[in-house]
């Protein structure tokens, strides 16, 4: 009995349609149809997968004169969408596009963090007599600079986000890499690992050290120096975050394709359940940040809302996960 006949026989013995077998293997129904009609041969990884699914040896599948074996159906996969096949061409296209777009995304985020710097500097110098401007005029100029910088960041961010939209399914849907793709992605990730770890260290250290000038100026009891220390703090944070994003985004690209870390199938299912809550939470956080910042005018301090909100968000997700666990 040849391979095509064995696939059809084992599939029918389990009561599976071609669509059901295709779903379990992460391929299209047309692929299964071609295998059974001898129009094409399955790749080695699919033969190994069928060996597991049908409970037979690979020798039985590959050898025409192999002794007959009784199939035993593998457990049903977890409920959810069928894995989406990813070819080598599609994986390479995504990695190339991600490398181009994330440079601009990192720059846009850095600009958002830097946007209050002109406002803090101009308003501070006007308040302490270093500029011949009234405080209201200085604040107006600073706000104008802030909005211009934010607008520039949005103009940089949006095109990259739009280009990456067609690959959003990698964050939410299960995928099945075609034969050989996983090895190529894993090799690229291993080559990038040293850059990723060193970039994380540098970025995090810059963010931590950003408060040092502020503490130093507070010890000197120089209010104008504290103003510039705040500007330096935001600048160092912007640089640190830029470096972190530049190394973290390529790493996430590899993890998305390999379905590891935060992008494993279990995490994807979890994220699908949390999407409505996350959308509401971050919209509410943004509204609170803008309301508090405009009301108080303390843009140099209200940024603290974001790290507090991030920690609270992680805590709420952990609580949701704990409440869903069976008792």
From TrEMBL:
Sorted keywords for this record are: DNA-binding, Membrane, Transmembrane, Transmembrane helix
Pfam families found in the cross-reference section: HTH_3 (PF01381)
Q: Where are the transmembrane segments?
A: 104-125, 137-158, 196-216, 222-245, 277-297, 303-319
Q: Origin, by domain of life? A: Bacteria
Q: Which CDD domains match?
A: HTH_XRE
InterPro entries the record matches = Cro/C1-type_HTH, Lambda_DNA-bd_dom_sf
Q: Where is the HTH cro/C1-type domain?
A: 7-61
Record SMART domains: HTH_XRE
The name on file for this protein is: Helix-turn-helix transcriptional regulator
Q: Which organism is it from?
A: Allofournierella massiliensis
């Amino acid at each position: 009995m040849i391979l095509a006949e064995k696939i059809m026989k084992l599939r029918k013995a389990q009561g599976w349609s071609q669509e059901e077998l295709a779903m379990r293997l992460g391929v299209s129904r047309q692929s299964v149809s071609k295998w059974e009609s001898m129009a094409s041969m399955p790749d080695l990884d699919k033969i190994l997968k069928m060996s597991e699914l049908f409970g037979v040896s690979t020798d039985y599948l590959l050898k025409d004169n192999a002794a007959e074996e009784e199939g035993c159906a593998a457990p049903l996969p977890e409920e959810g969408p069928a894995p989406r096949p990813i070819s080598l061409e599609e994986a390479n296209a995504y990695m190339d596009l991600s490398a181009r777009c994330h440079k601009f995304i990192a720059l846009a985020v850095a600009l958002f963090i830097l946007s209050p710097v002109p406002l803090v500097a101009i308003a501070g110098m006007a308040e302490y007599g270093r500029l011949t401007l009234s405080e209201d005029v200085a604040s107006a100029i600073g706000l104008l600079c802030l909005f211009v910088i934010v607008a520039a960041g949005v103009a940089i961010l949006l095109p990259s986000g739009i280009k990456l939209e067609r690959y959003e399914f990698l964050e939410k849907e299960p995928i099945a890499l075609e034969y050989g793709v996983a090895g190529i992605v894993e090799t690229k990730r291993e080559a990038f690992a040293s850059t990723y770890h060193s970039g994380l260290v540098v970025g995090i250290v810059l963010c931590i050290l950003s408060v040092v000038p502020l503490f130093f100026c507070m010890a000197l009891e120089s209010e104008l120096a504290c103003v510039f220390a705040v500007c330096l703090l935001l600048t160092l944070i912007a640089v640190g975050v830029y470096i972190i994003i530049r190394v973290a985004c390529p790493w996430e690209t590899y993890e998305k394709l390999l379905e590891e870390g935060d992008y494993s199938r279990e995490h994807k299912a979890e994220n699908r359940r949390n999407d409505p809550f996350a959308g509401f939470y971050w919209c509410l956080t943004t509204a609170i940040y803008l309301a508090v910042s405009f009301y108080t005018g303390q843009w140099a301090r209200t940024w603290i809302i974001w790290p507090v909100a991030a920690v609270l968000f992680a805590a709420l997700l952990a609580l949701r996960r704990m409440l869903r666990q069976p008792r």
